[in-house]
Design brief:
Length: 407
């Protein structure tokens, strides 16, 4: 540890005194006496100064190499990204920071590590003397839409501790709440008005007493109620997926097993429309890291869409192929009327319908492909939709095979 400047004159005096003693023959009685007197005087002065001015004997931090070792041990135990910045470079980065910014980040110029103008502007300012702690919210570190609360604390010697707190999920959850209220109020208004109208009709003694009218209206009310239930379930599902989108799932899931589960669950729909489901598997493996429930929902939505919008008595194909060693590609192909090219870019928007009347007639909520898009995004995959009018539609999904690619 190093003494403050206020202590150094005392230490220097002691050293000079000891040198004089040594020069006069410290081995004799006179040397011993002088040594004792000077040593006692020095100790008395240091003790006196420590008592009346305790701040004067506070030691500085350990040398830089010692502090970096300390920082490695302390910061390494923290779950959120943290950096120790000295002289414009990243002296220490804990494992969470390396995962976010890259394993190469330690020892690099902080401008290459963070690449965010507002953060770099704060770090480039002269270090404040009052150990000021600064906070700012930024977007775009790690991923384009990821939001961070950055806290910058200044140490005694001007080094900076930088802490990054991920606020993406909290902000996304709040946005989902607002969107949910807006979308639900819009989409539920029509079926709810229909149900209320039927109830008012059935309350009339004339109409309500007619068995045939009552039966028909109750059937329509049941259908509208089921549609509202499906819509609410889809909205809740979409909100959950979006709120979790920054946490990549990693459980091993076999997509061929998922397809067979969907086949069994949709057996009646296949029977009603006389469709056939064909699975073509040319991949070395169909196992990917993921969330099983969400991948089941993704495959079900694609296959049910292919059934509903494809031609009756036609074939629906699910094809698995390798896209290099790191990715699995699977496609769901229908033989239907197809979709005009101007609609393709908007198919994954919430509540967007190419034909609103037909979509409602087959039980669609307008959220199926929006859910698919967000599931693919959470699994760090890619989605592509291609269609030709009169021929049919191909929906292709690419998913990474290795969990490391999901980071």
């Amino acid at each position: 540890m190093l003494l403050r400047l206020s202590q150094r004159p005392l230490a220097a005096a002691a050293i000079v005194a000891l040198a004089i003693v040594g020069a006069s023959g410290a081995g004799g009685p006179l040397g011993a006496v002088l040594l004792g007197l000077l040593g006692g005087a020095t100790a008395t002065l240091i003790a006196w100064r420590a008592y009346f001015f305790p701040e004067a004997v506070i030691v500085r931090e350990a040398p830089a190499e010692g502090r970096e070792q300390w920082a490695q041990e302390i910061l390494g135990a923290l779950p959120e990204p943290m950096l120790l910045v000295e002289g414009g470079r990243v002296a220490v980065a804990n494992p969470a920071a390396k995962q976010l910014l890259g394993r190469w980040v330690e020892g690099q110029d902080v401008r290459l590590a963070l690449r965010h103008p507002a953060t770099l502007e704060r770090l480039s300012r002269p270090a404040p003397r009052d150990r000021e702690v600064e906070q700012l919210e930024v977007v775009g570190i790690g991923q384009a839409e990821r939001r961070w609360l950055i806290t910058i604390a200044t140490l005694d010697d001007g080094a900076r501790l930088v802490h990054l707190a991920d606020r993406s999920e909290a902000i996304a959850a709040e946005k989902m709440r607002v969107d949910f209220v807006a979308n639900a109020s819009h989409e539920l208004r029509t079926p709810l008005a229909t149900v209320l109208g039927f109830i008012e009709t059935l309350q009339d003694d004339g109409a309500g007493g007619d068995k045939e009218i009552r039966s028909r209206f109750l059937g329509l009310m049941h259908g509208e109620g089921k549609r509202m239930q499906t819509l609410i379930e889809d909205l809740m599902s979409l909100s959950r997926i979006e709120a979790e989108r920054f946490n990549a799932p990693r459980d091993p899931v076999d997509l061929v097993q998922i397809v067979e589960e969907v086949r069994a669950g949709c057996a009646q729909l296949f029977l009603d429309r006389s469709n056939e489901l064909v699975v073509e598997n040319d991949a070395r493996s169909t196992v990917v890291p993921g969330d099983r429930g969400q991948l089941l929902q993704l495959v079900r939505n694609l296959i049910v869409n292919a059934l509903k919008y494809g031609r009756a008595e036609s074939q629906v194909t699910v094809r698995f192929e390798d896209d290099g060693p790191a990715q699995l590609r699977f496609a769901v192909i229908d033989r239907g009327e197809g979709i005009a090219v101007e609609h393709l870019p908007r198919l994954t928007e919430r509540f967007y319908r190419v034909d609103a009347g037909r979509s409602r007639a087959v039980g669609g909520t307008g959220l199926g492909l929006a859910i698919v898009k967000h599931i693919v995004s959470r699994h760090r995959g890619r989605l592509d939709i291609r269609s030709k009018v009169g021929e049919g539609t191909i929906v292709t999904v690419w998913l990474p095979r290795e969990a490391e690619q999901l980071s």
